[in-house]
Design a protein that fits this description.
CATH architecture of the largest domain in chain B: 2-Layer Sandwich
Distance between the termini of chain A: 59 Å
Number of domains of chain B: 3
CATH superfamily of the largest domain in chain A: Beta-grasp domain
CATH topology of the largest domain in chain B: Uridine Diphospho-n-acetylenolpyruvylglucosamine Reductase, domain 3
Largest sheet of chain A: 5 strands, mixed
Shape of chain A: elongated
Bound molecules: flavin-adenine dinucleotide, FE2/S2 (inorganic) cluster
Helix content of chain A: 25-40%
Number of strands of chain A: 5
Structural class of chain B: alpha+beta
Radius of gyration of chain B: 19 Å
Strand order of the largest sheet of chain B: 4-5-10-6-7
Helix content of chain B: 25-40%
Strand content of chain A: 15-25%
Structural class of chain A: alpha+beta
Number of domains of chain A: 2
Oligomer: heterodimer
Shape of chain B: globular
Largest interface: A-B, 34 and 30 residues
Number of helices of chain A: 5
Largest sheet of chain B: 5 strands, antiparallel
Distance between the termini of chain B: 38 Å
Number of helices of chain B: 12
């Protein structure tokens, strides 16, 4: 029953041919098989949000999905937000607003906020707080994270004008 | 800890799923996995076989025919929150859906999984009882229809047999307006208490969740006077076997019933607004 099965996993636009045990969580396969350690693991019960990745563009918990289940779907991890060394405007904004301290929650926050802004470019503060309510941060007290996200939403608003 | 080893099978039809479940006694269905995988991660459950039903297209539809709303068991919580026809004709479901867990949980968790899991603090079991829905269940003998009021048996327990699948929920168009309210410690947490209230004019029904071991639709008078109404909520509460009975739990139950009733009276856009039915501190 521990035997491995072949799996084609598409992460950040690249397809990997790997072998997995059915019981391996997507979070563990990303970290241990693909070396994408930007996806953090906190609670393994869906509560903390550190492991949040995008599956076909939507935020989901990689600790509550088996890797074998997502064959053929597009996975985006924090490493896939940018190509190369530069940061996205949201990442720049996190830096400028001191929206991270230890950084443990940051990948999950970034992916959730990226998906939110994709879907809703000008969210209200309440919408932002609701969207990140599933991402626990033990350091910042959230205000700077909310500020960072709203600042990007504001920027895009100016671009439109 | 990590999940114990299991075999994994993907299916595309209900018949295939039922056959696998019948042949392997400790097999389990995986839908959204948002309740099952946490249990597996802590090895509180260790199925020998997971039957992944996510590829069954027939379970993914929402159909409104003017009399009944039919929601396939694989429809995700977030799809219900965002569905234009549900927002229009069954707005109480859209409002309730927004209170289930967090965005990432709602994107994957399904209504069928929630009904099968039967957590007494969950929104969907109470919603189906409050709206007098019927639950379609398919097993080796074919499809049977179970009224929601008979489906839930207690804590995490339903009439579902191990080789049966929830395939759909059928909800009749409500004749009267319903309201919803819940309170949780944080946005997205399981409810400390919540309620659906139906106002038929002077009387109606209240269905609580997070209060007893299963949702029950309780008849009550609904006087215009608030003090008299609070008394009525207390009376209705008195008919239930309240879990971990305490003054604070009763207080929350009464508050949520009252708030749900007030929600039922909001008009138009206000009814669906972000603030409506919210669980801000009392
Ligand atoms: C952090 C967090 C917060 C949450 N907060 C809430 C909340 O506030 N309110 C709430 O209601 N829920 C909450 N949930 C649970 C979530 O709603 C789940 O989606 C739901 O309880 C189960 O649905 P699922 O599709 O994920 O089912 P799964 O986890 O896949 O399955 C759950 C159980 O049901 C069985 N099952 C699944 N589908 C079927 C089917 N079609 N037929 C027969 N059996 C089936 C499975 O075998 C399993 O035993 C939360 C979850 C997490 C992780
Ligand atoms: S590790 Fe997945 S939600 Fe905490
Ligand atoms: S920055 Fe430390 S947990 Fe958020």
């Amino acid at each position: 029953m521990n035997s491995k099965v072949p799996l084609k996993l598409t992460v950040n636009g690249e397809t990997f041919d790997i072998e997995v045990e059915p019981r391996w969580l997507l979070s563990d396969v990303l970290r241990h098989q693909l070396g994408l350690v930007g996806t953090h693991v906190g609670c393994e019960q869906g509560a903390c949000g550190a492991c949040t990745v995008l599956i076909d563009g939507k935020p989901e918990r990689s600790c509550l999905t088996f890797a074998i289940q997502v064959e053929g779907q597009q996975i985006t991890t924090v490493e896939g937000l940018t190509r190369g060394e530069h940061l996205t405007p949201l990442q720049e904004s996190f830096s400028a607003h001191h929206a991270l301290q230890c950084g443990y929650c940051t990948p999950g926050m970034l992916l959730t906020a990226t998906a939110l802004l994709e879907q809703e470019p000008h969210p209200t503060e309440q919408r932002v707080r609701e969207a990140i309510s599933g991402n626990v941060c033990r350091c910042t007290g959230y205000q700077f994270i909310v500020d960072a996200i709203l600042a990007v939403a504001g920027d895009t608003k100016e671009d439109v004008r | 800890m990590k999940p114990a080893a299991f075999e994994y099978q993907r299916v595309t039809t209900v018949a295939e799923a039922v056959k696998l479940l019948r042949d392997a006694p400790d097999a389990k269905v995986i839908a959204g996995g948002q309740s099952l995988v946490p249990l597996m991660n802590f090895r509180l459950t260790r199925p020998s076989l997971l039957v992944d039903v996510n590829g069954i297209k027939a379970l993914q539809h929402v159909v409104w025919d003017g009399t009944y709303l039919r929601i396939g068991s694989l429809v995700r919580h977030q799809q219900i929150a965002d569905h234009a026809e549900i927002q229009k004709h069954f707005p109480v479901l859209a409002v309730a859906a927004r209170h289930i867990g967090h965005w990432a949980i709602r994107n994957r968790g399904t209504i069928g999984g929630s009904l099968a899991h039967a957590d007494p603090a969950s929104e969907w079991p109470a919603a189906t009882v409050a709206l007098q829905a019927e639950i379609d269940v398919e097993g080796p003998q074919g499809i049977r229809t179970v009224p929601a009021s008979e489906f839930f048996q207690g804590y995490y327990s339903t009439v579902l047999q191990p080789d049966e699948l929830v395939v759909a929920v059928r909800i009749p168009y409500p004749k009267f307006r319903l309201g919803f309210a819940e309170i949780a410690r944080r946005l997205g947490d399981f409810a400390l208490a919540g309620a659906f209230v139906e106002d038929d004019g002077g009387q109606g029904f209240v269905t609580w969740f997070g209060i007893a071991d299963k949702p029950v639709r309780v008849h009550t008078v609904l006087p215009d006077n608030m003090e008299a109404r609070r008394e009525a909520w207390q009376q209705a509460l008195g008919t239930l076997a309240i879990a971990d009975d305490s003054k604070s739990r009763r207080h929350l139950a009464v508050q949520m019933a009252e708030r749900a009733w007030q929600h039922s009276r909001l008009e138009g856009g206000k009814y669906l607004s972000e603030e409506a039915a919210g669980g801000d501190p009392l």
